[in-house]
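Session log. Operator J.P. requested a structure for one protein chain; no other inputs attached. Running the standard single-chain path with token output.
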Amino acid sequence: MSSVKKVVLAYSGGLDTSIILKWLQEEYQCEVVTFTADIGQGEEVEPAREKAQAMGVKEIYIDDLREEFVRDFVFPMFRANTIYEGEYLLGTSIARPLIAKRLVEIANETGADAVSHGATGKGNDQVRFELGAYALKPGIKVIAPWREWDLNSRESLMNYASQHQIPVEMKRGNRSPYSMDANLLHISYEGGGLEDPWQEGEDDMWRWTVAPERAPDKAQYIEIEYINGDPVALDGKQLSPAEMLTELNRIGGLHGVGRLDIVENRFVGMKSRGCYETPGGSIMLTAHRAIESITLDREVAHLKDELMPRYAKVIYNGFWWSPERRMLQAAIDDSQRFVNGVVRLKLYKGSVKVAGRKSDQTLFDVNIATFEDDAGAYNQADAEGFIKLNALRLRIAADKRGEV
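Structure written below.
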């Protein structure tokens, strides 16, 4: 511990990270630099400055990372139509490599010996933070208090806060019984009654979306324009990445889009039940697949679908900064060169439906696909030889062995 002179702490200003701040000062006898990121969690981040100052912190970083988060992390991930285990849009997973990156940058700027985070020893986030830190600064020391201290109950944390005069927010009225994590892509809920996978999430748990049955009775149509696989305009209005996701979250929330209840397999080995709201992401996933359907070559589209589960696993497990993710990303990004055009979507009571898609780079040729007279654009007689060649191995096996 004596070798650590300065540490950069990922600091939210909440009880847990405030206790960690004091614990680092006491146990490591080191200077603490705090870093608070605004990635669209919907909460004021400036109060963290006053709390850190009150605890003697002299170097305080509060960064608005919303545009970088969506532009450099969310959008690249959505170019791959990424979902983990068939459902999860990786809202928490994709935020961690950005936080790890900024922790290391601040450590370099301030001459810190170590970085620290508030992730527990049971979850995925400890892996994501630390894999990112080690990839970007191999010699960095990472301090994970939840794996070192003996403050393993709420009571012990409260006692520590009382002993060290750490302010504790005592409001109960609007306090959620769930552990929540939010950013511009999603908000998650874990713990509380959700630890019973048979128990349905309570109606008042959801923060961003209305219940689909209480959504408007009239459908809303929207149009999203894509350039190189990224959404750039909504209903004809150019928007920055963060503005785009913010507005899609608002519209999707009004129509009850993006609710999810899953049991997922954590990288550390256990199963975890969580509920998620990802309204904007759900809209983007549907829209992106729609524009790809008319602009991607068949084999490129199929190969992307085969690679996607591996890409999703890489991100979920915390390997954003790995060579395999960079390799996959290069292939995915190359596939997006002609993914340009407009998608029209219909939002109605929790659903997102494609109502139309068009592109100057479309591969859809009505003259070939039509059920009407194609004027010789496609010779249907050619299909006979195609079918017989594909049937050759089946016919040989059946003839020789009597079975396929």
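Operator note: The CA atoms of residues 114 and 281 lie 34 Å apart.
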